[in-house]
Amino acid sequence: MLLIQLTGLSGAGKTTIAKMAKGSLEKLGYNVELLDGDEYRKHLCKDLGFTRNDRIENIRRMGTVGLLLARHGIISIMAAINPYEEARKALKDSGASVKTVFIDCPVDIAQKRDTKGLYRRAYLPEDHPEHLTHFTGVSDPFEIPVDPDLVIKTDRESPEQSSERLADFIVKSIQKM
Hints:
It contains seven helices and five strands; from the N terminus they run βαβααβαβααβα. By secondary structure, the chain is of the alpha/beta class. Helices cover 44% and strands 15% of the residues. The chain has helices spanning 14-27, 37-42, 52-71, 85-92, 107-113, 118-122, 159-175, and strands at residues 3-7, 32-36, 75-79, 98-104, 150-153. It has a five-stranded parallel beta sheet, sandwiched between helices. Helix 3 packs parallel to helix 4 (85-92).
């Protein structure tokens, strides 16, 4: 079937859009699994930190699960920051049907959304016990996707519009297979 790798900053709307698109696709009769980066870090990837190598390994593991599900006819939507082009390209080059969707949101808007308080913690002094190191968009880079299959600008449309665009893109991608 299909693996969709969403990529974007923390707070860009990846999980929100993915959950809504999943619901829409299921109503159309598709089998869909959401691979949420936060959930995978609690379970399958809890041994990994946030260094470049650990982030790439995190995506490799999530991608492996997504590809296995896709082989069994399940649409996999992977909602993770996925900040490095190297990891995104490795998944696309796997030979399977993998699409990259950039959930584009300016960092200042993502910071305002900051529902988890992560940006606040990233800006704390380094010696503060709650300080976050290796935080994408603040102290670690986010590499803009070179050639995404779809760009969704969440600062310009509602979550409903964004999820509808994602669901439509997925259906059209399946029809082209």
